[in-house]
Every structure is written in structure tokens, then in C-alpha cells.
Amino acid sequence: MADFPRLRYRRSPRRGAVLAGGGRLHGLDSVIETPPQTRSPTARLALSLLQSTTSRSGRTPGVQTPPSGDGEHHTRYSQLVVDITGLRSGWVITQPNAQHDAAKLLHPDDLRLSREIVSWCHRVAGDPLPPSAVPGATLRQRRVLASLGGLAAALTEAATLDTNTWDRWPHAVASWAKSAPRPPLPLVERARAAIEARGQTDILAQLYERIVAGPNRRHLGTFFTPPAVLDYMIKRTKQVLSDEPNVVIDPGAGVGAFTEGALHHWPTSQINAVDVNIVTLGLLAARCAVLNSPNQPTFIHGDYLEWVTKIESDSLKSKLIIGNPPYTRHQLLDRKTKEVAHAASGPLCPNGQAGLSTHFLAATLRVLGPRDTICFLLPANWLETRYAREVRKHLWELRNRAVQIHAFPHEAVIFPSAQVSAMIIIVGPETGKSQNLSYFSVTQGKDLNFQVTRLAHTQRKVICPATFTVQALSGTSTSSQKSDAPQTPLSSIAVVRRGVATGDNEFFLRRDSEVADLPEESYVPALPTLRNVPEQDLTPTAHRLLGVSGVRRWLLRLDNIHTENEAVQALIGEGKRKGTPDRYLCRTRTPWYAVERTPIPDILIAPMTKTRFRVVQNLAGATPTNSIYGITLIRRTDAVESARELVEWLRCDDGQQALLSIARRHSDGLFKLEPRALANLNVPIQ
After folding, report:
1. What is the DSSP letter of 273?
2. pTM
3. Which of 87, 115, 180, 238 could form a disulfide with 149 if both were Cys (CB 3.0 to 4.6 A apart)?
4. H helices present in 403-518, as ranges
5. Residues 374 and 364: beta-carbon distance below 8 Å
């Protein structure tokens, strides 16, 4: 294997992701491209490295100009860092520190086959599938998906002579397959061979990903499980099971990675594959026909959240619910889906901010029988968020079941087309004694072997912690928290809150020149962002320099001003003309320009960072906007001196480590503080 330097590119919003080449290179499930005229010297260097490695390995990477159209999946990362590595077996593109198991090793033969099948689907595409069949897909994508049914039908017809096969398929799925034209026999045979090979590449998942772009897959949360992660989940699940389950359920089955795994590892179990997407369910049915397992699954076309509530509990049978629920954020759920989700989740997801994957977990927990087991691959954010608090409490109360959390590093690329931190939750069957809740860190080295470290093994004898982070479950904290100095929650000495939400910063935040003719009492010092502060503290001089540089440093206070003033009247008229009174926050206020009044904070802190949190003492008395958190000391005696001591501690290494330990970490390496977590932070007191 030949390794080359990592090369950094930024995506142009009009030109797609920038990668050396002037064409495209298929890696993972992405098509990464750049027009020839955009090649930088660095890009040309990367291309030469790529070509030279290709010549040495005897392989051709297949760099070529892609056809236009939304059937091609363009990488949409705001920033992509890639390793270009020559492999004898093909090509792989990974992000920095990516786990090698999460990267699919795409053999050139598989790439060529998927490209030819998709090209055939484009050529014969006719009437599209209805939007309800594959929500989120575009019209063109639904035309191509309609013709893909011919491949599913041809694979099935070639694999079996059983005339009852179509009767076992859901009606909508069978109609999709039987009504489509059949591909040429050579393509069918090559697809069958690729399915039977069961390699690191899933040809059916690759086909779907090539047709439906990543952003369009988010509506249904369709992101397929890497084979190595699947194997790990099955291995860990078998360690929890006492015997072979009577029933295996694959929720959101997709193209069937977990269903195929169940056929192999639990061949005598009844297997139910549930999915709302007729295309992925049809591809799964075709896969099972090709594999010709004597134990054929039951294919269920429908919403798992509706279906699971109808399962009858049977204490004599054991069920294993294992899978990768859809990664769909609540903003993408329509009203009907939300109603179904809330009905299935009940009190475990009481508000409307939970994503679909959290609803799948909650609904499954509600119907869990005494001998049942869960193993889900989920986004990691539910471990900390407020909307999943009742789910965590429920898991905490299941004291006679083993509960395991297997967390991948935040920088791990589990799903290359979705930037999300991933984890695995395993809930075992009931036992006759109390079980622990365990937290494992799962990493993988270049040898492709998982390295598992148990970081917490908690006896659930106390109340449920606020989060399921490793710090909360293990009871550990930063070095500062372990010191002998007396400590107290920040909320006992200060009030923490977000800055002011104006509803229209462009109108309510003004530059020096824009307030020159206004009465002095009609505006107050403000700060829109800490990035503008050049010094460690916001002094009056530093605030004045912001004005010199053109920063909007004044917040309008018009509600207590006589509106007869001509300048004020003109300003209110300006706001009306631009529609400010119709903005959401503004139309809830009376009058619309009455911005909330809050105490001036002593300390300002930026809630997001990738390295160190910015902490500033507010000596200028500025009102921050809601992109900044404010800390206002309760005791006003010697407030300036007390704020200075607190600022110095928050800036030091111990303070920064304490802040990082309570922050939520996103998949792009960004740490984010929440006001409640900051208020609960233990700080040293004199």
C-alpha cells in the first residue's frame, strides 16, 4: 500500500467538491468531481500522484467526465480532507482519522458493473414511481428507480422456478418489479455473481446510492451499514443472547444487510424485514432469492412505527430487533409521520424534536418482551439531548437487563455521505439479577481489527444521570474537578442565559453612522459576535474600535422613546417597509420593535469551538446577541473583581478542559455548550 500526503480542498458552492482530476473518482458512495478549469497546482499534483500510483498498480481509476443530472451523487461536505491511497484491490477515499472499516473498498469491477446498470436504467427509464413510493427522491431519480425494478425481477426469475415467489412479496413491491423492463442477461448474471460474492462491496446498496443522491436519501434516512460494523454488531449481540431468537426483526431493512446476516447466523429463526421504501425492500427480496436460503424472510412493506405497535407480546418467544433505523431529523418529518411516531413512542418522546431513529428506539422499548433483545446502530446525539431524556430514564430503569453503549469516535466516518457521530445500543433480555450499564469505546486500526475499551461499568443504584456520556456514567471529570479546592455549581453564583434574540439583526443592530442622528437613549452598546473582539476583554476602547471597523455595535431600544422624533419615525418606517414587523419574533411583540431587556452580563462566552472556548470579560457593558452566552454574577459587590477571577479560571487549561467535558461534540469536531450544562458546571470558589 502506498500512502500519500493528505490534501485539503474546499467545496465551491457551484462547482461541487474540489478534488484533483477534472473528472470524477468514485469512492465509497460518493462521486467527487471538479471541472478542469478549476484545477489548482495542488490539484494537479494530486492528480499526478493518483496517475503515477495507478500506473504502478496496473489499475485504472476511471477518471472521466460524468453525465449531468441529479442521478449522480456529488459530495456535499463543506470541507473534505482525503487520503489518496493506491490499493491492489481498488481505490478508497477516506476522511482524516477515518476508521478503515467504515470505508468500503470498491473494486473497479464493482464500479464498472454499477455504472453500467445505472446507465441502462437511464436509457430505458419511463414512467416514474409516485412520490410516496420513495419520499425525497426527485422526478428523474424516481424514473430511474422504476426501471431498476427490472433488475430485481430478472434476478428473482433467474434464481427460482417457484411460481409462488411473487405471492410472498408485498403487492406494491411485486408490481414495481414485474412492470419494469428486464436488463440484458449479461448484466443480470454479473449482478447475481456480485451478490453471491458477499464481499466488502454491496452492489445493491451501491446502485441505490448512485441513483439517489445523499441529500435526497435524508428524507427516509437511507444510509447503509458498512459490512464491518454489521459483523461487529452481530458478534456483540450473540454474546448477550442466551439462545437463538425465535424471531428476528430488521426495522428499516433497506437492501437487507441485517436480514442477510440474520439468515446466516440464525438460520432457523423467523425473520421479518420491514421497510416503507418499495425499492430497497424489492432489492432485498431479490437478494434473498439469489442467495436461495431455505428460510425465506417475510417482507413487510409499511411503516415500522405503525407495525411494531401491533406486535403481540409472547413471553414464550424471544425476539431480536436488530438494525440501522433511518437517520431522519425531525425537521424532515411530515405531520402524518410525526403523529405516527409520537403515537408509537408515547411518553418516551414527549416533544417534537426527536429524530426518526430515536422514535424507533423508543417504540421498540415500549413493546419489548422479557426475552427480547435490541441492537441498533444510531446517531450518538440522543445520549445527551433533552428530547431523549425519557428514553435514557427508561433504559436506566431496566436494571435487570444488560445495557451496552458502543461509541465510535466522533471523527469516525461510519456513513461517508452523512456527517453523523454513530453509536450502537444493545439491550439484553431480562435476567434474574441486576445488570450493569456499560460504555465501550470502539476504534479500529489499519489492521482492520476493532479495538474495544470499556470506559464505564455502572451499577444503576442511584438516580439516572442527566446524560449518557462516558463522564456521566463513569463519574469521572476533569482534573480541576478532582482538586481539593472547594467548588460550587456556576448556577449558585451566576445566571447563565443566551444573548438577546432581536428577530432581525440587520434592522436592530446598527453601525455608528446609522445612529448618529438618533437620540442617545434609543440605542445601547451591543455585541453581535465574539469573533469581532480583537482583545481578550471587551473594554470600552475595544468596543469603540469595533465601530471604526464598521461592526454593528449598537442595539436599538425604541419602545420607550417618543416616536414623534423624526429620526425615530424614519427608522420605524424603514423597518415596516422591509417587513421586519412580520418576522416571527417581531410579530409576537407589542410593539414589534420592543426587543427584550436583559441584565448586562459580566462575562461573555462563545458556545461553539473546535479547540478552546472564547471567554471575554464584558467591561464595555454590551448586550450580546443570541450567538453568545452571558454569565451575570448574582452578587454585585465586587462584581468586576469576581468576574475577573472566574474569567481567568475559565480560560486556563483546567477551566477549558471542564468546559470541553460538558460540551456536546458533533461529527465535524465541533464542541457546543448548552446553557443548562454550563450552569451546572462546577467552578472553584475562594
Report:
1. E
2. 0.67
3. 180
4. 470-474, 505-508
5. yes
